[in-house]
Amino acid sequence: VQLQASGGGLVQAGGSLRLSCAASGRTLYEYSVGWFRQDPGKEREFVAAIKRAGGATFYADSVKGRFTISKDNTKNTVYLQMNSLRPEDTAVYYCAAGSRIINSSIRVPSSYDYWGQGTQVTVSS
Predict the structure, then answer these.
(1) C-alpha pair distances (Å), 86 with each of 31, 36, 51, 120, 123
(2) CB 78 within 8 A of CB 6
(3) In this model, does residue 54 exceed pLDDT 90?
(4) Phi, psi of 111 (to 5 degrees)
(5) Mean pLDDT of the chain
(6) Bridge-partner residues for 21, per DSSP?
(7) What is the secondary structure of 6-36 as a DSSP string?
(8) How many CB atoms lie within 10 A of CB 29?
């Protein structure tokens, strides 16, 4: 499966953005999908994920209540709605997909088999 992330940009603190992760080659229904972010010189950080079976969602504590992950199987796309953005949310955001991810590993980057290119999110103060 090929993943294409988009929707990043520059926004003021308190603003909103919606990231999209569009898949081609295979249907995303078969995969759990996660969003990660990374600043230069730092490790890739888990943001949110949605399971392939049942659609259970998981969030990092730092974004809980502000970000929402969702999946549209008809469009083969996963979204990350980001509200109340903060300067510390600034990073390159990546989406990733994996077919066999257990709940305890959903936050681990190495659990995912496929990665999209990143999309830059910059939040100004």
Answers:
(1) 30, 16, 26, 14, 6
(2) no
(3) no
(4) -75, -15
(5) 96
(6) 5, 78
(7) E--EEEETT--EEEEEEEESS-GGGSEEEEE
(8) 11
Span 103-116, pLDDT tens digits: 999 999 999 999 99
Instruction: State what percent of residues in the chain have pLDDT above 70.
Output: 100
Which residues are 61's β-sheet partners? Answer: none
Tokens (6 digits) for 63: 């974004």
The string of pLDDT tens digits covering residues 70-104 is 999 899 999 999 999 999 999 999 999 999 899 99
C-beta separation of 99 from 30 below 8 A: yes
Identify the CA nearest to 8 among candidates 82, 95, 119, 123: 119
> Cβ distance 119 to 20 under 8 Å?
no
